[in-house]
């Protein structure tokens, strides 16, 4: 085996797809790209997200306590990267990148109609924001866009390359310990 820097750990453990996070600051929507997130528990569904003061959305999430996490498909790969390369303090990203929105039910941040999934979230724990930029969010509503033909997701490897999600492996019959989960 060859040893590499421990700073590369996130490149092998990043578990979930790259996502887009929407916010709304007094009616002005914004969107950012995020790769550092994790499921924390099943019920209530809690999600940990790293959003720091370097992100324009940071202050909005602190002030409003809400956001939407949207999961894009592979067909939005270039848009996802481009959204992450500019700041909402100077660019209307929805307009620049032609992202279509829909109104959410419980939060003021918009859903992204072009994405596979949208999760309306509220901040339920801020204790780790100060030391780690870690927000704990509770998923309040889950929207699945069943009309999307492209179903594959992107997984960032931390260096500008991505792994593309492909097919599925069904081992439900073997998962006897977790059958009670929805």
Question: What is the topological layout?
Answer:
Layout: H1 9-13, E1 19-25, E2 28-34, E3 37-41, E4 46-50, H2 57-64, E5 66-71, H3 77-84, H4 93-97, E6 101-102, E7 111-112, E8 117-125, H5 129-132, E9 134-144, E10 154-156, E11 162-164
Antiparallel strand pairs: 1-2, 1-5, 3-4, 4-9, 5-8, 6-7, 8-9, 10-11
The beta-strand count equals 11
Strand content: 25-35%
How are the strands of the biggest sheet laid out side by side?
2-1-5-8-9-4-3
How far is the N terminus from the C terminus? Answer: 40 Å
CATH homology-level superfamily: Electron Transport, Fmn-binding Protein, Chain A
CATH topology: Pnp Oxidase, Chain A
Sheet of most strands: 7 strands, antiparallel
**Structural domains: how many:** 1
Summarize model confidence as the mean pLDDT: 90
What share of the residues lie within helices? 10-25%
The secondary structure category is: alpha+beta
What's the CATH C level?
Mainly Beta
* SSE ordering: HEEEEHEHHEEEHEEE
What is the approximate shape?
globular
Low-pLDDT parts are: none
Cα-atom Rg, whole angstroms? 17 Å
In DSSP terms (H or I, runs of 4 or more residues), the helix count works out at 5
CATH architecture: Roll
Pfam families: Flavin_Reduct
Protein name: Flavin reductase family protein
Enzyme class: oxidoreductase
GO molecular function: oxidoreductase activity
């Amino acid at each position: 085996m060859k040893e590499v820097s421990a700073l590369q750990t996130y490149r092998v453990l990043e578990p979930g797809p790259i996502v887009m996070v929407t916010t709304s600051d007094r009616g002005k929507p914004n969107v950012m790209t995020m790769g550092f997130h994790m499921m924390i528990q099943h019920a209530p569904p809690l999600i940990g997200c790293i959003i720091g003061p370097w992100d324009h959305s940071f202050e909005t999430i602190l002030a409003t306590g809400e956001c939407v996490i949207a999961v894009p498909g592979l067909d939005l790969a270039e848009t996802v990267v481009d959204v992450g390369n500019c700041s909402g303090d100077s660019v209307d990203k929805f307009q620049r990148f032609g992202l279509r929105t829909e109104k959410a039910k419980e939060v003021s941040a918009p859903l992204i109609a072009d994405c596979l999934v949208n999760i309306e979230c509220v901040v339920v724990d801020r204790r780790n924001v100060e030391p780690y930029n870690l927000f704990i969010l509770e998923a309040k509503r889950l929207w699945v866009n069943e009309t999307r033909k492209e179903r594959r997701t992107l997984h960032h490897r931390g260096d500008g390359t991505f792994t593309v999600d492909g097919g599925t492996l069904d081992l439900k019959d073997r998962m006897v310990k977790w059958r009670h989960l929805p």
